[in-house]
Amino acid sequence: MMGTGFISIWFLPLFSLLVFGISSAHFIPIRFTPIAQFQAEKDSVSSPTGLYKEKFFTQILDHFNFNPQSYQTFQQRYLINDTFWGGPKKNAPIFLYTGNEGEIEWFAQNTGFMYDNAPRFKALIVFIEHRYYGKSIPFGGNEDVAKSNASTLGYLSSTQALADYATLITHLKNNLSATDSPVVVFGVVDDFEMGSLRNQRYFLGFAVLAAWFRLKYPHVAIGALASSAPILGFVNLTSPYSFSKIITQDFRVLSLSLSIHDIIAICILYYNPKSSTPPNTFSFD
Ligand SMILES: *[C@@H]1O[C@H](CO)[C@@H](O)[C@H](O)[C@H]1NC(C)=O
Ligand SMILES: *[C@@H]1O[C@H](CO)[C@@H](O)[C@H](O)[C@H]1NC(C)=O
Ligand SMILES: *[C@@H]1O[C@H](CO)[C@@H](O)[C@H](O)[C@H]1NC(C)=O
Ligand SMILES: CC(=O)N[C@H]1CO[C@H](CO)[C@@H](O)[C@@H]1O
């Protein structure tokens, strides 16, 4: 895990993608069953950092099939901050962070961008944890069971994760009587090693989840900000050197404002000799 200071200098120069105004005819309608319900308010816990309240939502395990086992549920964690929110009567917006591969608190504590902008837009801030991470583990919260084999791990997919976000935010809006509040989704890359799962079949896509969310659920989100998202950054789609090229460019820009010590520190963080594959398979093109 890297420090906040590092994250902020890292995020700024990287490319951001705004996906406002993209229309899509190909969204997958998801099944909103009455199974999903919010737990009572007593389950909400203020965070030690004072940045949000922690809540849980009873989420459906499988959004796309109708087998009996598809109706299993799990507790999905989300973090919420309504301090700046203008409220439903003003149709004040909702800033939604589409959680990536890790505990959601870490992303909430390092995404100052949403907190910085929420007061100006009078936005509600919501961070949703990605299924199978942190406290959002299906199969009774037992990680060993949840990750034991294909029949349990098969529910870990970006398609299911996006449907989780759509289900949760839709229920939350109903609950808050804020059905007309526009939702803007945010996703940021958490580290430039491109994640722990890159050698596995399911590559989480990090910030790209926000862009995909806007594409698949245009009726739920009016826009997405996918910072440093590897939109086309997948093996064999783009040049394997794109990532390194853009990193080099970033260091060039950064070097104007950083001391040589900062730059050396960044290079040491970036260069990971233990990595089995070079960090150049994904691009930010
Ligand atoms: C929301 O975040 C601000 C800090 O930006 C904090 O002062 C406030 O207490 C938080 N509100 C909640 C409900 O956690
Ligand atoms: C997969 O794991 C689950 C939970 O541990 C277990 O009940 C099931 O029998 C396993 N299935 C196979 C095919 O190994
Ligand atoms: C990329 O292309 C090479 C050469 O065609 C192929 O061997 C490899 O399996 C491909 N990789 C992926 C992940 O599709
Ligand atoms: C059905 C349900 O979960 N209702 C909740 C909606 O939000 C209010 C206030 O935040 C709660 O008190 C309700 O329990």
Automatic annotation (TrEMBL):
It comes from Hevea brasiliensis (Para rubber tree). Transmembrane segments: none annotated. Gene3D superfamilies: alpha/beta hydrolase, Serine carboxypeptidase S28, SKS domain. GO terms for biological process: proteolysis. One of its GO terms (molecular function) is serine-type exopeptidase activity. The keyword Transferase does not apply. Residues 1-25 form the signal peptide. The keyword Phosphoprotein does not apply. Keywords: Glycoprotein, Hydrolase, Protease, Signal. Belongs to the peptidase S28 family. InterPro entries: AB_hydrolase_fold, Peptidase_S28, Ser_carbopepase_S28_SKS. This is Lysosomal Pro-X carboxypeptidase.
